[in-house]
């Protein structure tokens, strides 16, 4: 999985980092931050994929890739 500028990312649940910081990192990397999961969302960042949160359920139904916070941090640091 490679994140690329222009991809759409959403966030759901609780994180160790502040959500605003994660969203800011995503934007600096050229990612578009969505408020909700839609058909156009490429990645959902959620630490608990089994939480039953509406965004997680939507991602599973729509086939949106799920990443936890740590994996997101690794990948977003590689975006050119």
From TrEMBL:
Gene3D superfamilies linked: BRCT domain
InterPro entries, sorted: BRCT_dom_sf (IPR036420)
Protein name, per record: BRCT domain-containing protein
